[in-house]
TrEMBL record:
This is Lipoprotein. Keywords: Signal. It comes from the Bacteria. Residues 35-58 are annotated as: Disordered. Residues 1-22 form the signal peptide.
Length: 183
């Protein structure tokens, strides 16, 4: 092992010597006058610049209407990027049309939960939404996905859930009466 390391070091010394001298022999390091005035001065490592390269992610994520099962009151937008859900408790199964296998990322929306469908089919997800409280207008919720095999998660890998407000309203002030209870 030491013989191999010594051979590699000798070759490196010959290479550096040949680079900095006017002549060099293969059998050794015959150094004469430096050809460039002498000293090899390495420069600092740069940052490499920006390649502008991006992974090929194909098309935008869309919900496939033929393979999805939408509940009553749920609708899919024409472009397939938004699912509208009613204010009632709802469960739908959506199939995301994508060439890559997707993983759903955790959501911070307490009204919605998304998980892989129990069928085990790739890119099939079950979306569950709880009842929206009276007077509450939750608005849109983004369901974010990560493409397996890619290092990064991209902000446009989403499906939007448009959560409809509850049309019921509550008005007035609550009144609580105390009852006397005899023991």
């Amino acid at each position: 092992m030491n013989k191999i390391i010594n051979t590699i070091l000798a070759a490196a010394i010959i290479s550096v010597s040949c680079f900095t001298s006017a002549s060099c022999s293969k059998s050794g390091t015959e150094v004469r006058e430096p050809a460039y005035g002498g000293i090899l001065d390495p420069e600092d490592w740069g940052d490499g610049g920006d390649t502008g390269a991006a992974p090929e992610r194909g098309k935008v994520l869309t919900v496939d209407p033929d393979r999805s099962q939408l509940a009553a009151g749920a609708e899919l937008s024409r472009d397939g990027t938004t699912v509208t859900l009613p204010h009632t408790e709802t469960s739908v199964t959506i199939f995301i049309d994508c060439d890559d296998e997707l993983e759903v990322l955790p959501s911070d929306n307490p009204l919605v939960s998304v998980s892989p469908a129990p069928t085990g089919e790739i890119n099939m997800f079950t979306v569950r939404k709880v009842l929206v409280a009276p007077g509450e207008n939750p608005g849109p919720a983004a369901v974010k996905f990560h493409r397996k095999g890619m290092e990064h998660t991209y902000p446009d890998d989403i499906i939007t859930l448009d959560l409809k407000p509850n049309p019921s309203t509550v008005s007035g002030e609550p009144v609580f009466r105390q009852r006397r209870v005899r023991i």
